[in-house]
Design brief:
The structure is a homotetramer.
Chain A: H1 18-31, E1 41-46, E2 49-52, E3 68-71, H2 99-109, E4 113-117, H3 120-128, E5 133-136, E6 160-165, H4 175-184, E7 190-193, E8 197-202, H5 205-227
Parallel strand pairs in A: 6-7
Antiparallel strand pairs in A: 1-2, 1-4, 2-3, 4-8, 5-6, 7-8
C-alpha cells in the first residue's frame, strides 16, 4: 500500500479542486473565528471520494498534502479505527475527529460538503437556548438556509429550527445523537452541539458555506436579541 | 441575441470600471460583514448602463464575467420578468433580487450607485427603533451623510432620520413601500428594511460607499447607546 | 506657481517616506475602524515640511499623489483660507479639515505626527465620561502612553487623564478649545472630542501610532468596564 | 565582540525558522488584537538558542534583523542587566521586557515557546474573576489546552484553572510571583496577570499558539457568559 502516500489525489492546478479549496476555506474560517485553536473543519465529497483535513493541526496553515482522501461509501464510519484511505499524508497525522459526523451528513442527507465550526455565536446560542432547539423567526437571513440543508430555501415566514444535542467527551461519540436529531428534525439544515459548536451541510461546498454563514449570522443576532430582551420568535400573521 | 453573453461590456483593464469595482467592493463588504451568506450587493450605473451582480452567489467571489449589464432607463423594473439585458453571464444565474430597489434609487434620486447590506447593525437598529424611523443626533459622522443621498452633506446640528419599511417575503415586493418612504422622506439618504438590512445610494459609487460606512457606524453606535441607556437624540440648542 | 502640482515632494521609493507611509497607515486605520466614511486621518511632519491627506476622500484608497505638503511653521493655521502649499494635488481636493488641529500638536508639543480617529471606542468614552476628562488607572497599557505625548512613558501607577472638549459644527472651530485643553492639561497625550473622536500626537509617526493604539485599547476596555459595573480608577496604594 | 551584530543567526530561507516565524506570528497576533501598542510578544527556543523580539517596537513590523538570540540555559535571567547575547540588532534596541518571564517557561516547564498577549479577553477575565484563578468548565475548547502546558490535553470533563498573579510596575518583577504560581499550580498551562495579560507556553511554537488561541477563546466566552449571568463552572456528573 505504498502509494497511499502519493500526492496525486491532492495535486491539482484547479483552485476549485477540493484539495485546494479546503486549505483556502480553512484560512477564511480561521479569520472568521470559526476554527481557532485547531478546532472545526470542512469536508468536501466529490462523487465517491471524500476529502478531509487532519485533526489537531492549525487550520489556517493546512496544505493540500496534509489532506486525507477516503472512499465513499465503501466503509463503515464506526468504529473509527481501521478506516480505509485512498490517500493519507506521510506525516504522523490523524484524520479529523469529525469524520463520523461528516459521514452522517453524507449518509442521511446526501451532502456534498459539511462544515464544523466552534464559533462562539453557535456556542452562546446553545447556552441561551437551554432546550432541545434554537429557534428564530422573521429575519431575512433565514432565506439563505435550506430545508434539510439540501432542499428548497426557507421562506421569510418560516421559523428556523436547529436541534441542539448534548456534547460528549469524545467527538466521535456524538455520532448517534446526531443521527437521532437528524431523524427527528428532517427539515433541519444543521445540528448544534451544546458548549461545542455546529455542524452544517449542503449539496455542495458553496451551499454548505452559504448556509453556515447565514446560520452563524442568525445565532449571533439571536444572542444579541436575547441580551437586549427582544423576542426572537414572533407569531406569523 | 447570441452576443448578450459577450464579455465585452465587463472587460476592462481599468480598475475603476464598474465590472472590476463591483467584485472588489463586494470582497470588502464581505469582510465588513455586510454581505455574508450571498446577501446584499451593489449596483453601479454608468450613464445609460447599469451593472448588477448576480443573485445567490458568494459575494466575495464574484468575477467580472458574472456581472449583468442592463440598459437605463429603457425598461420597466416591474414586473421583474422579461427584463432586457445588454449583457448577461453564460452561467445559469439570475440578476440580483434587489434590482427593482436599485431602480428606485436611480429613478427617484438620480443615483449613480446603490448599496444593499444585511449588516447586523442595520437590522438591530430596526429592532431597537420599532417605529417608522431610526433617528440619531449629535454625532460627527452625521456629517458624512447627504440630504436625500445626493445633495449637500448634513450638518452636525442636523438630526439624521432614516425611514424604516416593513420586510416582505419577496425582496422585489419592497419596491412600492420603498417608493412611498422615499417620497415621504425626501431628505433621507437611505431606507432601512426591518429585520432585513438597508439600502443606501449616492451620486457615485464613492458617495454611496462613504454614506453606507457613515450610516453603518451610526446604526452601530446608536444600538450601543441604547444598550447603555444613553439618549440618541438631543435637543439642539 | 505651476510647480505646486509637481509630484516630486510626494515621490519616493522609500516605504518610510511620509508620502508612502500616510496611504499605508490610512489603510491600516481603515481596517481598525478608525477612519471609515472618509473620517479621521494622519499627518507626518518632516522638519519644515508637513504632509497631510486630503479631506473627504476614502482614506483606505489614498495615493501619494493625493497628499498635500505645507511648510512649517511659516504660516498661520487660521484663518484656514489662504494657506500656503509647497505641493498640492491637481485634483479638486481640499487639505484635511483637521489641519488647524494638527498644527496645535506641532506648535504646542513639537509633535512630529498627529493622528485623528473617529473610533467608536473614543466616542463611547466621551459619552460614558460626561465630565471634562476620561480617566483610567491600573492597566498595563497605560505604560505605552507618554507624558504630554512627547515625554517619558507613564508608569503603571499613574492614572491616565485625557481631556474631553465639546464638538463644534466645523472641525476647524475646535482649534481654540483644543489649545485651551492642551494648556490646562500639559501632561495629556491626546484630546478627546465629545461625540466625534480623538487627536493623538507623538514625536514621530511610530510614537503617535503606538500611543493611539494604547489609548484606543484603554478607551475600549474602559467602556467595557463601565458596562460591567467595574471601577475604572482605583486608589493607588 | 563585533560579530554579535551579524545577521547570520537570523537569516534563513526557511519560513519556519524562528527568525522568520516571529515576525509572521507577531503580524497575526497584531491582527488578533493581542499585541497592539508594541505590547506582548513571542519567544521561540531552538535547542540552546532563544529567539526574542525587541521591546517597545511595533510588533506587526518586526523584521528578522530586529531579533535577539540568547544562549540557553547559560545565563541567569535576573538581574536583567548584563545579559549575554549570541546576536543582537545593530539598532539601539532592548530585548523584550518579558525575557525573565519567558525564561520561567523554559526553566520550569521545558517550554519550546512562550507567548505573551495583552488581549482584552485576558484582562477582562482577570477583572471578572477577582480571586486567584480563572476557571471554566464544560467547553469543547478546553480540550485544546494541555496539562502544565506541555503534557496531555485536558478532557472535556476537566475544569480549566488558570492562576492569576497581581501586576507590578515593572514587567521583570513579575518573575517571582509567576514562579510561585507555576509551582502552586503545576497543571496550569498559562499564567494570567491581572490588568495586564497572559503568558502561555508549549513544547513548540505550534503548541504555544494553539493553546493561546484556545485560552483566549475561553477567556472571551467566559467573560460573555458572566455578562449574560450564566454559570461558567458546572458540577461534573
Amino acid at each position: 500500500m505504498g502509494d497511499v502516500y502519493s500526492t496525486e489525489l491532492v495535486t491539482s492546478s484547479d483552485p476549485t479542486h477540493p484539495a485546494n479549496l479546503i486549505p483556502e476555506l480553512c484560512r477564511l474560517f480561521y479569520e472568521l473565528g470559526w476554527v481557532t485553536g485547531t478546532g472545526g473543519g470542512i469536508t468536501i465529497r466529490h462523487e465517491d471520494k471524500v476529502f478531509i483535513a487532519p485533526s489537531g493541526v492549525q487550520k489556517e496553515r493546512i496544505k493540500p498534502e496534509h489532506i486525507f482522501v477516503l472512499p465513499y461509501p465503501e466503509q463503515s464510519p464506526s468504529p473509527h479505527t481501521d478506516r480505509v484511505f485512498l490517500r493519507r499524508p506521510e506525516q504522523n497525522l490523524k484524520e479529523s475527529a469529525c469524520t463520523p459526523l461528516f459521514w452522517n451528513a453524507f449518509d442521511l442527507r446526501g451532502a456534498g460538503s459539511c462544515i464544523h465550526t466552534h464559533s462562539q455565536n453557535a456556542v452562546l446560542a446553545t447556552l441561551l437556548w437551554p432546550g432541545p432547539v434554537f429557534q428564530i423567526s422573521h429575519q431575512e437571513m433565514i432565506k439563505g438556509v435550506r430545508i434539510g440543508g439540501n432542499g428548497k430555501t426557507l421562506s421569510y415566514l418560516d421559523t428556523l429550527v436547529v436541534p441542539i444535542i448534548e456534547n460528549t467527551p469524545h467527538e466521535e461519540d456524538l455520532r448517534e445523537s446526531m443521527v437521532a436529531a437528524m431523524e427527528q428534525y428532517p427539515d433541519a439544515a444543521a445540528i448544534l452541539v451544546r458548549r461545542h459548536g455546529v455542524y452544517v451541510w449542503g449539496n455542495s461546498w458553496e451551499s454548505a458555506k452559504t448556509q453556515t454563514e447565514c446560520l452563524d449570522y442568525l445565532f449571533e443576532i439571536g444572542v444579541k436579541m436575547r441580551q437586549l430582551g427582544l423576542a426572537t420568535v414572533l407569531d406569523s400573521e
